[in-house]
Amino acid sequence: MSASTYRGPNFEPNVTPMLDVLLVLLIVFMSVVIQVHRSIDVNLPETCSGACQGTVQIVLEIRPGPTYRINSTDVPRHRLAEYLRMIYGPRPDKTLQVAGYPGVRYNDVVAAMDVAKSAGVLVVGIEPKDSYSPR
Length: 135
Fold this sequence. Notes:
Oligomer: single chain
Largest sheet: 5 strands, mixed
Number of strands: 5
Structural class: alpha/beta
Number of helices: 3
CATH topology of the domain at 59-126: Nucleotidyltransferase, domain 5
Order of helices and strands: HEEEHEHE
Distance between the termini: 104 Å
Shape: rod-shaped
Low-confidence stretches: none
Strand order of the largest sheet: 3-2-1-4-5
CATH class of the domain at 59-126: Alpha Beta
C-alpha cells in the first residue's frame, strides 16, 4: 500500500483579503472625516500699546432670549441684519467684536455671527470672557 499525503483540512486563515478590506475602510474613514470637519475662521484682535487710534469699536452683545445690543443700543432680532448693513455700509473698517452674555447658548452666538457676516462684516472678533462686563 502507498502512504497517503493528505494531512487534513488547513485551518490557517488567509489574512490578505482582511488586510485589503481594512485598508479600504481606513481610506474611506479618513476621507469622510476630512469632509465632515467644520470650523469657524476667526482672527484674534491685536492689543494696542499706548493710545489706539482709529474708528470707534463696534461691539455686538448677545443676551439671553436672544436679544441684541450694539454699542448700548437695543436691536430687535428681525432688524439685526438691516442695522448692521446700515452701520458697515459706509465704514472702511468692517470689524465687529462679539460679546456673549453669561448664559447665552452657543447656537445663538454663531447665528448672530452668521448674520453679521451676511451684513458685510469681514472680521469678527470675540471679546475675552475676562474683559466683558455686561452693561
